[in-house]
Task: structure prediction
Amino acid sequence: MKQQLVVASVSILLALMLSSCSDDTPATSQQSTTADVESIATQAVDNTEPLPAQEATPRPATTRDVSEFQQLYKLIVYGQANFNQVYAALKTDDVGELVNIIHALYSMRWLRGVNNILKAMWEMDQKAYPELNWDKIKLTPVRIAIASTINRIKILDTREYKDFIRQHKYDDHEFHRAQVVVALGLNQDPVDIAYLHEMAEGDNIYVSQSAITSLALMNNEQAKESLIKLANKYKDSPRGRLVMDVLKNAYDMVPTQKPAETAG
Result:
């Protein structure tokens, strides 16, 4: 129950904060697409590291497309979809939508067909589900999302998924790193806190915001202390205010900030 409250509070925070927060690096069109926490990894990225052609969204979505996707996504997030609806959502040719759906499939883990399709996507078994967009499924951010979701569902024998996620910790592409920090936050292994703290201090605002939120998803004392250090370091800045709000919503606390250090 405590973790559910953490996820709910952080997701509400992100919906309010991510579109307006800016810091050392100017952000462009970062808009919140859903109220669910897994969607933080697919916000529109800034233009410091443009998406390669094969990973860019291939076409602008129409109003009808967006509405249909959001309806399917909502059903999946709340565990109310049937397998046909899951399959329809996974047919999207939009990488960001596909990543969101795959993360959200954790809510559908009780459905055997969902576990089967996740396994097929991980193993790239195209014959099992030929109508899926396999050119998108093979892309790194999508595979990180698949590894993350399977890792969350399975109890044993998850090392290969964790290893795959961690192999991309320092990828050049920001979308890859953002997927990694979200996956590690959801994994909740304290060994990754130092890395998340490092990413939270980075110059890329997209990755930094995702890492700050992932420290909240960690839901442990070490992650809380990491956020307190970030709050003190970046006080009176947009990044610091985001950290303070995450601390308040995820850990129900507002730290007493230390005075800013004076330059020597």
Remarks:
- Residues 1-64 have pLDDT under 50 and may be disordered.
- The two ends are 48 Å apart (CA to CA).
